[in-house]
């Protein structure tokens, strides 16, 4: 866009319709050498659409790594609404690593599908969440049956219930 091959390359001022000045400044700082700005939750979601629009794959990858780290670090405290919003964002910008991390977290959330925003998630991702949930429940059940989950000779359903509680 800024090279002479494009119309904007010969302009003194480049119009950026529908862009907030502060968001674009942050975006440019992350692209420019010499600036050591750190990604934050406050800036990352504003820069992602710009990284997508201007095809800055390196920045998009750094954003994805930041988002994955964030969703995994707050997996126990993240709300159902927030994880749904994250999934929608991951799908929109085709961030597969972030999407997979969100699916892992979402599969452990109670009543996720009861949230009206859940319908905004693609059917493919909804299916992946459900299958991940079933897979985790199967693992717990198998461990319980094998005696590795509980240190008793007899299998107790109440013990299994304790381990399945995050999935109910």
Task: Give a written overview of the molecule.
The protein is mainly alpha-helical. Helix content is 58%, strand content 0%. It has helices at residues 21-31, 41-53, 57-73, 80-92, 96-106, 123-146, 157-164. Helix 3 packs parallel to helix 5 (96-106). The model has no long low-confidence stretch (mean pLDDT 82). InterPro entries: SKP1/BTB/POZ_sf (IPR011333).
Short description:
Helices cover 58% and strands 0% of the residues.
Fill in the keyword field for this structure.
168 residues, mainly alpha, 7 helices, 58% helix, SKP1/BTB/POZ_sf
Low-confidence stretches: none
Radius of gyration: 22 Å
Number of strands: 0
Beta-sheet strand percentage? under 5%
Tally of helical runs: 7
Helix content percent band: 55-70%
The secondary-structure element order is HHHHHHH
Q: Main beta sheet, described? A: none
- The overall average pLDDT, rounded, is 82
Structural class: mainly alpha
User: How far is the N terminus from the C terminus?
Assistant: 51 Å
Large-scale geometry: elongated
InterPro entries: SKP1/BTB/POZ_sf
Helices, strands, pairings?
Elements: H1 21-31, H2 41-53, H3 57-73, H4 80-92, H5 96-106, H6 123-146, H7 157-164
């Amino acid at each position: 866009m800024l090279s002479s091959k494009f119309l904007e390359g010969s302009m003194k001022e480049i119009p950026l319709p529908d862009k907030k000045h502060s968001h674009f400044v942050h975006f440019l700082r992350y692209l420019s050498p010499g600036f050591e700005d750190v990604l934050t939750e406050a800036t990352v979601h504003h820069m992602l659409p710009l990284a997508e629009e201007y095809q800055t794959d390196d920045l998009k990858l750094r954003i994805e790594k930041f988002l994955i780290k964030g969703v995994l670090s707050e997996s126990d405290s993240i709300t159902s609404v927030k994880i749904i919003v994250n999934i929608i964002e991951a799908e929109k910008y085709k961030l597969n690593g972030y999407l997979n991390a969100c699916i892992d977290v979402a599969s452990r959330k109670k009543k996720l599908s009861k949230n009206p925003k859940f319908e905004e998630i693609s059917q493919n991702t909804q299916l992946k969440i459900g299958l991940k949930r079933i897979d985790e429940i199967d693992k717990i059940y198998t461990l319980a049956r094998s005696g590795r989950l509980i240190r008793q000779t007899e299998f107790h359903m109440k013990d299994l219930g304790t381990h399945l509680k995050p999935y109910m």
